[in-house]
Design goal:
mainly alpha
Length: 204
């Protein structure tokens, strides 16, 4: 019993150290994604006008006559799929500056790793294997540190998976949170399509 407690305590301390390293790594990165400035500018425009843009106001190319009918539906989708996240980015930036965005980015990525770790433990995966898998996941997330709405899709994907798994095997009540989560996701990033695909797979 004593050895078991010591092992659990050691594992907890190890994961705390690991997550501290992850947090430091994420926080030490400055804003670097060029598209971020387009996102907050569009967010400001949406707030000021109270409407979603029909054309990219920050690109003269989209207003050229030869481009008007090139891919109008795709352009409309791209312009409007991020609107809620763009407003969020804008308000955080004007209230907390770059530091606020960096903290948001760090929180989303750490939450993603925590959610995956939680599910691994629910499956009974050992601490040692979890340690390896979590570290590998961290390495993957370092490729997605840009300040983009896709950060929410990275988090929401495992969250939706866990909700569906919970309902399938335990008939848990987490599924009641799925509709509002999908509604939120659909107004933040086009990655909500991944959620729809997972739902269809579980319904099959």
């Amino acid at each position: 019993m004593h050895k078991t407690r010591v092992s659990v305590l050691a594992a907890v301390l190890l994961f705390l150290l690991l997550f501290s390293v992850f947090a430091y790594s994420y926080l030490s990165l400055d804003l670097w994604d060029y598209d971020f400035w387009w996102h907050i500018s569009t967010g400001r425009l949406i707030v000021e006008t109270g409407s979603l843009p029909d054309a990219d106001p920050f690109s003269f190319v989209s207003t050229l006559q030869e481009n008007e009918n090139l891919r109008p539906k795709w352009e409309n989708f791209v312009l409007k799929q991020y609107w809620l996240c763009q407003i969020l980015f804008y308000f955080i930036f004007i209230k907390a500056g770059p530091a606020g965005i960096i903290i948001l980015r760090t929180a989303l990525l750490l939450l993603t790793i925590l959610v995956v770790l939680w599910q691994l433990r629910r499956w009974g995966v050992s601490f040692y294997i979890c340690f390896v898998l979590v570290f590998l996941l961290f390495l993957v997330t370092t490729q997605f540190t840009g300040e983009r709405p896709v950060l929410f899709s990275i988090l929401f994907t495992p969250v939706v998976f866990i909700m569906l798994e919970d309902f399938k095997h335990r008939r848990g009540k987490l599924l009641y949170l799925l509709p509002p989560l999908m509604l939120l996701w659909a107004n933040i990033h086009g990655g909500f399509i991944i959620g729809n695909i997972m739902i269809m797979v579980y319904m099959a």
